[in-house]
Design goal:
The complex is a heterodimer of chains A (168) and B (290). In chain A, 32% of the residues lie in helices and 32% in strands. Chain B folds into two domains: 200 residues, Spore Coat Polysaccharide Biosynthesis Protein SpsA, Chain A (Alpha-Beta Complex), CATH 3.90.550.10; 73 residues, Beta-grasp domain (Ubiquitin-like (UB roll), Roll), CATH 3.10.20. Chain B is globular, with a radius of gyration of 19 Å. The chains are: A alpha+beta (168), B alpha/beta (290). At the A-B interface, strand 4, helix 2, helix 3, strand 8 and helix 4 of A face helix 9 of B.
Chain lengths: 168, 290
C-alpha cells in the first residue's frame, strides 16, 4: 500500500495504526487533524476538501519518503480526506513508527507541516451564517473588489500584504 | 475584481485615403477582418465587430457579432462609446482594422499589463511616444469620461487617452502597430507578410508560433470562477504565464499569478515553462490541506 492516500470515506485510524506495527520500533506517534466548529471568528458547520489527485498523491508520497529518510523512520503513513466532512471528523491522519520517541515526534510533525503547505488540496468552509469560503483564497481574492471606488487608482498595492499559506 | 474582457474590432472607418474597405484587404490570403478576429478570439471572452448602420448588409461583418454605432460619423471613439454602453460591466480590448503587423504577443503584452483600476491601458507609439488608442483596453469606468469627451465635441481618441488616467506601455515589438493608410503602404505590407508566411523561421523569431491545443483543469476557487472543471483551449501562449493571462482575461479569474502555482502534466512547473501540444495545465490556488 502506498504511504500517502486520499480517502472519500471516514478513516479507520486503528487499522491505519495497525499497518505500522513493527517490533523493532519503540515509538509510535500520530497526528489527527479534526474538523473544527470555528474559523476566524465564524461558526463553521461543515467542510469540503477538493484535491488535484494525481499530483497530490505524488507529492504526498514524496513528503512521506523525505520524512523516512530525514528522521530514520521505520514506517510512515498519511491519509487525507476529500469530499464533504462533518464537524469532529478526522480530516487528515499521520502515523509514524521509529526506534525512539524523538524521531517519531519530529517525523510526525514534519509530515503534517509539509502536507499543509505542499499538497494541492483545498478546503472550503461552510459557515452558520450561510456563507462559505475557500481557505487562504477568498479574502485575498476579494480585497481588490472592496477597493473599487472612484479615485482608487493610486491604491493598487492593496491586498499584497496578506499572508496566505503560499506553497513554497 | 477586474471586469471581464471583450474584444472589439473597429471597422466603421471610411478609408478615405485608401479608397477601399480596409477590413477586406487581404494579406497572405486572408482578409484583415478575419485575421484580426482570429487574433482576438483566444484572448478575450467574446468578440465583436464595430460597424456603421449602413454596413449591416456586409456578409463579412455580419458573420461576427456586431455593435452598431449609436451616432454616425463620430469616428473610432463612436465605436468605443457604443461598445461600452452595450456592455456596461465589461472592459474592451479595442483594435483598429488597419494593423496588419499586429501579433498575439503584442496583445498578450497589453493584457498582461492591464491596470483595471485605471481608465485604460495602452501602448505608447514607437514613433511619437503618444498613446495608441486603437490597440488598447478601455475599462468600464472610462464610459463617463468618453461620454463627456464626446459631449464636449472632442473626437480624437488619442487626445482622450493622453488626458485620461491611462497606463502606457512600451511596445516589445516596435513595428507591431504600424498602420497602413495608402495603396503603397498596403502593397509594402503585403510583401512583408506574404514573405513572412513562407519563412516560418521569421515568425518564430518574434515567437507567436503555432497555436497549441491544451487541456486546462480547474480546482477549488478557480473552478468556481471559471464556471467549469476543465476545458480544451487553443492558444498561442508561449509559456504558462501567458496562458494564465489569457484564461484570466477570458473567464474573469480573480486570483493573481503570484498567488498561484503551476502544474503541467501532473507535475509542478515554472511559470516560464514552455507549453507543448496536448499538455495538461493546472493553475493551483493557494492550498489548504490538513
Amino acid at each position: 500500500m502506498s504511504a500517502f492516500r486520499l480517502s472519500a470515506a471516514p478513516l479507520d485510524t486503528r487499522s491505519l495504526q495497525g499497518e505500522l506495527a513493527d517490533p523493532a520500533c519503540g515509538g509510535f506517534a500520530a497526528f489527527e487533524g479534526w474538523v473544527r466548529d470555528h474559523s476566524a471568528g465564524l461558526r463553521v458547520t461543515r467542510l469540503e476538501y477538493e484535491a488535484f489527485a494525481p499530483l497530490a498523491l505524488r507529492e504526498g508520497e514524496r513528503i512521506v519518503a523525505e520524512a523516512r529518510e530525514r528522521f530514520g523512520l521505520h514506517g510512515a503513513l498519511c491519509v487525507h480526506r476529500v469530499g464533504a466532512l462533518a464537524l469532529g471528523e478526522v480530516a487528515v491522519w499521520v502515523g509514524v513508527a521509529a526506534p525512539h520517541r524523538d524521531e517519531a515526534f519530529r517525523g510526525c510533525r514534519f509530515i503534517i507541516d509539509e502536507i499543509k503547505h505542499r499538497l494541492p488540496i483545498w478546503k472550503k468552509e461552510h459557515y452558520e451564517n450561510g456563507d462559505s469560503g475557500w481557505v487562504n483564497c477568498e479574502r485575498c481574492a476579494s480585497v481588490p473588489a472592496h477597493d473599487e471606488h472612484p479615485g482608487a487608482a493610486h491604491h493598487d498595492h492593496h491586498g499584497e500584504h496578506h499572508a496566505h499559506g503560499k506553497p513554497r | 475584481m477586474s471586469a471581464p474582457l471583450y474584444g472589439l474590432l473597429l471597422t466603421g472607418g471610411r478609408s478615405r485615403r485608401m479608397q477601399r474597405d480596409k477590413a477586406n484587404l487581404e494579406y497572405a490570403g486572408r482578409s484583415q477582418l478575419a485575421r484580426a478576429m482570429a487574433l482576438l478570439e483566444p484572448l478575450v471572452a467574446r468578440t465583436f465587430v464595430s460597424v456603421r448602420a449602413d454596413q449591416l448588409g456586409d456578409p463579412q461583418r455580419v458573420a461576427y457579432e456586431c455593435i452598431v454605432d449609436a451616432w454616425p460619423d463620430l469616428g473610432p471613439i463612436g465605436g468605443i462609446h457604443a461598445a461600452l454602453h452595450a456592455h456596461p460591466a465589461t472592459a474592451w480590448l479595442v483594435l483598429a482594422c488597419d494593423l496588419p503587423f499586429l501579433d498575439a504577443a503584442t496583445l498578450q503584452q497589453l493584457i498582461a499589463a492591464r491596470e483595471p483600476r485605471r481608465l485604460a491601458t495602452a501602448f505608447r507609439s514607437s514613433h511619437d511616444g503618444k498613446p495608441e488608442p486603437l490597440c488598447a483596453i478601455y475599462e468600464p469606468a472610462s464610459t463617463a469620461a468618453i461620454d463627456a469627451w464626446i459631449a464636449a465635441d472632442r473626437r480624437c481618441p488619442r487626445d482622450f487617452l493622453a488626458n485620461a488616467d491611462a497606463a502606457l506601455l512600451t511596445l516589445r515589438s516596435p513595428r507591431a502597430l504600424d498602420n497602413i493608410n495608402t495603396a503603397e503602404e498596403y502593397r509594402a505590407a503585403q510583401d512583408r507578410l506574404d514573405g513572412a508566411q513562407d519563412g516560418a523561421a521569421h515568425a518564430a523569431a518574434s515567437a507567436p508560433s503555432v497555436p497549441r491545443t491544451l487541456q486546462i483543469q480547474y480546482f477549488a476557487l478557480l473552478r468556481e470562477q471559471a464556471g467549469r472543471n476543465a476545458e480544451t483551449v487553443t492558444s498561442r501562449a508561449r509559456d504558462a504565464r501567458e496562458l494564465y493571462e489569457e484564461l484570466r482575461a477570458r473567464h474573469g479569474l480573480q486570483l493573481r499569478p503570484e498567488q498561484l502555482r503551476v502544474a503541467v502534466n501532473e507535475e509542478f512547473a515554472d511559470w516560464s515553462r514552455a507549453l507543448a501540444e496536448g499538455d495538461t495545465v493546472v493553475f493551483l490556488p493557494p492550498v489548504a490541506g490538513g
